[in-house]
Design a protein that fits this description.
- The complex is a heterodimer of chains A (119) and B (106).
- With 119 residues, chain A is mostly beta strands.
- Chain A contains no helices and 11 strands.
- In chain A, strands 2, 4, 5, 6, 9, 10 and 11 form a 7-stranded mixed sheet that branches. A 4-stranded antiparallel sheet of chain A has the order 1-3-8-7, with no helix packed on it.
- With 106 residues, chain B is mainly β.
- Chain B is built from no helices and 9 strands.
- Chain B is globular.
- Classes of the chains: A mainly beta (119), B mainly beta (106).
- Chains A and B meet through strand 5 and strand 10 of A and strand 3, strand 7 and strand 8 of B.
Chain lengths: 119, 106
């Protein structure tokens, strides 16, 4: 299993950005996926998740209405569109794979991609 | 919303046993996962469903869950165990993480 995160950049406040995660080594369309972020020197914060078919999506209150998660099962890619960015969104963003069945864990993590929001 | 509380830091002498607590209201009713994050690396799961170890995780790492506290125990602590540890549960369809505990091996 491999998850490769990309798309992080320096963005001005109010700007937008799209992150991507390219997956391999497992049946992508059978796995729910998500994003977890970590601000500099801080803990982990769950941001968003999406079901395997891409129909059901979930968001943390901190990003609801600003961020949008999507997936392309034909290309084994996961996306996160970040909008109306503020300095508080500065963080490393990790793509995560849900564990099988009802294990309840994130069993694989990407290497992370850094988003810096600054003027 | 549901909250998990962890101590900011725990220190343990080399070879001794470290215990990291994760507190939450009736956390026993939820499955707890634990993640280890070494400096500069991505987190990795070390315990899921309270007590289970993924393949490759040594037996000296174990978990328990009772009442309002889940506990990660590391026996015979080694230098490689020095890391940040996070507990995790589900609150409906939202993932909740504890604030993290920095384990220092003396």
């Amino acid at each position: 299993v491999q998850l490769v995160d990309s798309g992080g950049a320096l963005v001005q406040p109010g700007g937008s950005l799209t992150l991507s995660c390219t997956a391999s080594g497992f049946s992508f369309s059978d796995s729910a996926m998500g994003w977890v972020r970590q601000a500099p020197g801080r803990g982990l914060e769950w941001i968003s998740s999406i079901g395997g078919a891409g129909i059901k999506t979930y968001y943390a209150d901190s990003v609801k209405g600003r961020f949008s998660i999507s997936r392309d099962n034909t290309r084994n890619t996961l996306h996160l569109h970040l909008g109306s960015l503020s300095v508080e969104d500065t963080a490393i963003y990790y793509c995560v794979k849900y564990g099988p069945g009802y294990t309840g864990m994130f069993d694989f993590w990407g290497q992370g991609t850094l988003v810096t929001v600054s003027s | 919303s549901y909250e998990l509380t962890q101590p900011h830091s725990v220190s343990v002498s080399l070879g001794q046993t470290a215990k990291i607590a994760c507190g939450g209201h009736r956390v026993v009713d939820r499955y707890v996962s634990w993640y280890q994050q070494r400096p500069g690396q991505s987190p990795m799961v070390v315990i899921f469903q309270d007590t289970k170890r993924p393949s490759g995780i040594p037996e000296r790492i174990s978990g328990s869950n009772s009442g309002n506290t889940a506990t990660l125990t590391i026996s015979g602590t080694q230098a490689v165990d020095e890391a940040d540890y996070y507990c995790h549960v589900w609150d409906n369809s939202s993932a909740v993480f504890g604030g993290g505990t920095k384990l220092t091996v003396l």
